[in-house]
Write a structure and sequence with these properties.
143 residues; alpha/beta; 4 helices; Putative pre-16S rRNA nuclease
Length: 143
């Protein structure tokens, strides 16, 4: 097991959540939500966290339906976002199934902070945490 620093993104057209984790311990923490204009973030803001945390890998949640099939509008846009991350910053990017990550994130936030914790930014960042921790679990399942 390596000890790479990894940043995950929960792509959305209005907001993109982010989380950071260490592969060696397999846990993630919320970073921040980036406002997006029709799926396009302020790339300078993304660059700032990448420079600050210097991850070795980026993980982008891949939205699918409950059966793992691509969603007509959002799945291709999440892939495009992942491609742009790779193209702009030269870091490896992996896509990871994010089925039910938002529902799980809402439940987690509500359990710890009630309705006050359910802001859009909190949900998006917690979704990124769920995506990254799920990615870690998938990696360990391969060993």
């Amino acid at each position: 097991m390596t000890s790479r620093t990894i940043i995950a993104f929960d792509f959305g057209t209005k907001s993109i959540g982010s989380a950071i984790g260490q592969e060696i311990i397999g846990t993630a923490s919320p970073l921040r939500a980036f406002k997006a204009n029709d799926g396009i973030p302020n790339w300078d803001d993304i660059e700032k966290i990448l420079k600050e945390w210097q991850p070795q890998l980026l993980v982008v949640g891949l939205p699918t339906d409950l059966h793992g099939k691509a969603l007509e509008t959002i799945t291709p846009r999440a892939k495009k976002f992942a491609n742009r991350l790779h193209g702009r910053f030269g870091l490896p990017v992996e896509l990871h199934d994010e089925r039910l990550s938002t529902a799980e994130a809402r439940a987690e936030l509500f359990a710890h902070g009630g309705y006050k914790a359910l802001s859009k930014g909190n949900i998006d960042c917690q979704s990124a945490v769920v995506i990254l921790e799920s990615w870690f679990e998938a990696q360990w399942g391969d060993e």
